[in-house]
Amino acid sequence: MKRILLTIGVLFTSQSFAAEPVFCSSPTMAYQSDCTSTCAAVAAAVAAGDVVINNGAGGIPTNSYKFCEGKVTKKTVKVYKIEMGKTTIGDESRCTIWEGDDLTVELGGSSIETLSSRYPITLKSCTIGTEYNAFYLTADRYEQFAAESVFPDATGKVARTTSTYAAKDTGHGNTLSVWRDEKFADASKFYTTPGWATAAYKKLGDEASDIDLINESNVTMEWDELKTSNSWGTDTTTRPGFMCESDDSNDCSAEADGRTDRYISIIPTASITGLPLTLKEGDETFDLEYVRFASERGTNKYKGVEFLWYNDDGTLKYAGAATTPNGGYLVVTNVRSNEGL
């Protein structure tokens, strides 16, 4: 019998388990810390005369970069293993509760997928009496994504993911300059940053462009989660072997047991309903559900990919795209023995 494993719809990284997205009531290209501006919403505001796209804080200053959310049309990842453990540094007590090769997840769109696996969740390798408060999730380091966006200047032109830098590339590590280009100085590098310390965008061309791609198709690009984790995971000492947010030793990613094709992320109690959990005699399995927030959430409301724009002396150009979290949380229920299953 197949057992339902997960109801999921978002990439398994610690940054994906974020709060439900809030969209800006007055969207602009200027960063607003408490809400998300989509490119479509900014374009609508420009058309209504509420925003001047290339002027000051409300738009994009000349020769500067800004970003807004586009629309995801494909976003998939493969999950290989789920461990239960603790966040205590040096006493993680990790135990494998699921491992398999048949779980590929589509993350885009507005629907929620119910996925099954022929491999069951089992707690038999975990320790009775131990209080577990986290999951350690192993996934393919590469996420495949495709996306599009209207130009936020209300011209009606369209930007899309493209083929030039779509493939996987080599080089990763704490030395960001090995794989991340400063703007468009090095055509051999697949990622660019506009200069922000935590920014990494997949390039959409050899330089920023204003070519209208309305009649083209969205190309599937390979997003390297392990590589790009180096951009935000600047703390590599607090939790040995992991890259963590500078102010959060639980928001971390790491290469998976020496495998360069997979990575591990820590999902702490704050993103899991049903943990902490102290195992007792007879606890052999449970139900695990993912409650995700859809990437399409209404008119001009999208979450899941960010487009980078450049004001080139008054001409708006697209420069790159980066995946972003939809948000969501895990739910653990029905802890039980295997009897009767």
Explain the layout of strands and helices.
Layout: E1 3-8, H1 39-47, E2 65-69, E3 71-85, E4 95-106, E5 113-117, E6 131-132, E7 134-140, E8 142-150, E9 158-160, E10 180-182, E11 191-193, E12 201-203, E13 221-224, H2 225-232, E14 243-245, E15 248-256, E16 259-268, E17 272-273, E18 277-278, E19 285-292, E20 305-312, E21 315-323, E22 328-336
Parallel strand pairs: 10-11, 17-22
Antiparallel strand pairs: 1-5, 2-20, 3-4, 3-7, 3-8, 6-18, 7-16, 8-9, 8-13, 11-12, 12-21, 14-15, 15-16, 19-22, 20-21
Low-confidence residue ranges: 1-17
Shape: elongated
Distance between the termini: 9 Å
The average pLDDT is: 86
Structural class, by secondary structure, is: mainly beta
The biggest beta sheet is recorded as: 9 strands, antiparallel
Please work out how many helical segments DSSP would assign: 2
* Topology, number of strands: 22
Helix content: under 10%
Give the oligomer, counting copies of the same chain as homo and different chains as hetero.
Answer: single chain
**What fraction of residues sit in β-strands?**
35-45%
* N to C succession of SSEs: EHEEEEEEEEEEEEHEEEEEEEEE
Tally the structural domains: 1
Rg estimate, integer Å: 21 Å
